[in-house]
Amino acid sequence: MKSLIAATLLLVAPIAAHAACAATDFTIQDVKVSAIGSGIATRLSVKGKLINNCTSAAAAQVRLDAKDGSGNVLSSKEGWPAGTTNISPGQSVDFDLGRLLHYQADMQSYSLSVVDVRAW
């Protein structure tokens, strides 16, 4: 019975370590949005900085929503700014998620949010 408990603890330990960081432990700062180019070659740039405020290294998935003038979501994409690399506590990573979206002339506002956290 003791070996079963020990085996269960070894399986649950990585999950417990992962649970130490939550989406609210990450912040997004210095967001800059711009359209680059003109006409059909217009590309969207949505740059920012993702900061890990957690006590352990982890990565975060960020969702980018592009909205029209009425606040309706026109397009939404998710990305991992640090890829499969953990961000150390107190450290940050710069990103540009605009390349994930196809620019549309009626895009008026953008929102970024952390939707998932994972320790790689």
Keywords:
120 residues, alpha+beta, Immunoglobulin-like, three-stranded antiparallel sheet, 6 strands, 15% helix, elongated
Strand content: 35-45%
Strand tally is 6
The number of distinct structural domains comes to 1
Query: Per CATH, what is the topology?
Result: Immunoglobulin-like
Terminal-residue CA separation: 31 Å
Estimate the helix proportion, in percent: 10-25%
| Overall shape | elongated
Discrete helix count:
1
Which CATH architecture? Sandwich
**Could you state the oligomeric state of the chains shown?**
single chain
Protein name: Spore coat protein U domain-containing protein
Keywords: Signal
Signal peptide: 1-19
What does this structure look like?
The protein is α+β, with helices and mostly antiparallel strands. It has a single domain, classed as Immunoglobulin-like (Sandwich), CATH 2.60.40. Helix content is 15%, strand content 43%. It has one helix and six strands, in the order αββββββ. It has one helix at 2-19, and strands at 26-36, 43-52, 59-67, 73-79, 92-96, 109-118. The strands form two sheets. The protein has a three-stranded antiparallel beta sheet, with no helix packed on it. A three-stranded antiparallel beta sheet has the order 4-3-6, with no helix packed on it. Strand 3 (59-67) and strand 4 form a beta hairpin. It is elongated and about 45 Å long. The two termini are 31 Å apart.
